[in-house]
Amino acid sequence: MQLDSTEIEGVGGLRLFVRDHRPATVTSAPTFLCAHGLGEHGGRYEHFSEWLVSRGCRVITCDLRGHGRSAGTRTHVGNFDEYAADLGLVWQHFHPQKESTVLFGHSMGGLVAVRAVQSGAVDAGALVLTSPLLGLKLRVNPLKKLLGQMLVGILPRTRFSNGLDPSNMTRDPRFAEERRNDPFIVRTVTASWFFAMQRAILHAHRDAQKVAIPIMAFRGMADETTDGNVLSTWLTKTRSPATELVSLPLHVHEVFHESDWIESMDRMRGWLEQVGLWPAN
Q: Which domain holds residue 24?
């Protein structure tokens, strides 16, 4: 595997850090463009990337603005479409072929990926989502939300705990320890981020019919962070020619960071073969 890193210019000239994983030889396997979840970064998907590259895929992972090694105020955004537009600029930089490109997004990155497709920023051949943020199951304290509403107009960068429960991220001991000790993990968000997220969810549902490519989505039935039932409803509102919803009974939020992640990857590969994005053996 060859791993290169580069920096490209995002919206407003902000610097974005991008990892480019490539196989040793050119193959007909697909290219993956990946968007990570809230407060994390593309480096947490090295196992995911290595598995794909070993099977001939190219994997491009971007640290979204305000995350990981990218510039920007940590976990802050004025409008989620900035994330989607940034992802579109990464797409333009690498010029992948639509017919052989999969857009992958986890949690917040799933919402970003959906908005990137709906806005036309990314023109991928298929969409793969894990626990996408299309509905929030995590309970937000009403007083905290009220305080955020009061501050967002005057002090939009006021920070609050993101409320994520580490025990609901993954039950795999190795991945949980890596997450705990990761210096790039951010555990707060700004008031502006929260209300931008709420607007983006509304827009993702409003524009559901603008998604007309194959979609595979994974949900952990023990996930208390994002709402898998809302995901199921959203899928029925798209114009996707092929949808596959995988429900994992014992899984929490990060389904590709669980002990059986390879089984989920194999399942994804099989589906991509069915819809013609991954040439069959």
A: 2-274
